[in-house]
Amino acid sequence: MFKISIKENLEEVRTRIDKALSSKGKTVDDIVLIAVTKTKGVDMINEAIALGTTDIGENKVQEIQDKYEMIEGNPRIHMIGHLQTNKVKYIIDKVDLIHSLDRKSLAVEIQKRAEQKGIVAEVLIQVNVAEEESKFGLKVEEVASFAESLLSYPNIKVKGLMTIAPYEEDPEKTRYVFRTMKELYEEIKSKNYSNFDMEYLSMGMTNDYEIALEEGANMIRVGTGIFGKRNYN
């Protein structure tokens, strides 16, 4: 049976990141590489951490809860999937960054739970640039007003924006998504909102992260490229 080499896969991803960033005078050290651990066992996660992975991303609250105590090395944990309002309380003090803030009801709940814990929750606003019905996120034209609505939540700090591009066999077709996001990111950043620290532009996954990096991503989410295909059994 073919054994996945996490070490070799990580080395390849890092090499490809360096190549994608070479024209910008940047390297893999200038971006945040999130290893997406959806459906992956704790042994594989801990192996990736031992090989230098500093950030892991989960799509489901239940998986964060199940794995949290067994993860070694103190990596930063990212909630990258759709977050149901009634699940916020389970992860508010476990994750370092919530990537999927996309509606007022979720902001209200994050504010409430963060205030109860005496913490400031760091979040990204999720944008659905391509307006795919199968994906969550705000439309591009909704982001500015939504951002302003967050100014009254002292226990939320917006750290940037996130998007998921449509899957394309030819990732070049997604370039417009990333370009639009970079423009939007710069626009929101220029507002200098009080509880915003626009540090991250989270976009690009296994299929398209090189294009995303070329267009200005500084945080990418790679699962299959590191751990192999997901196991849903």
Automatic annotation (TrEMBL):
On whether Protease is a keyword of this UniProt record, the answer is: no
A Pfam family reported for this protein in Swiss-Prot or TrEMBL:
Ala_racemase_N
- As stated in the Swiss-Prot or TrEMBL entry, residues carrying the post-translational modification N6-(pyridoxal phosphate)lysine are 38
Q: Which organism is it from?
A: Andreesenia angusta
InterPro entries with a match to the protein in the record: Ala_racemase_N, PLP-binding_barrel, PyrdxlP_homeostasis
Q: What does this protein do?
A: Pyridoxal 5'-phosphate (PLP)-binding protein, which is involved in PLP homeostasis.
Annotated Alanine racemase N-terminal domain residues: 32-229
> Which SUPFAM superfamilies does this entry report, sorted A to Z?
PLP-binding barrel (SSF51419)
The family assignment reads: Belongs to the pyridoxal phosphate-binding protein YggS/PROSC family.
Q: Which cofactor does it need?
A: pyridoxal 5'-phosphate
> What's an example of a GO molecular-function annotation for this chain?
pyridoxal phosphate binding
Q: Which UniProt keywords apply?
A: Pyridoxal phosphate
Q: Protein name, please?
A: Pyridoxal phosphate homeostasis protein
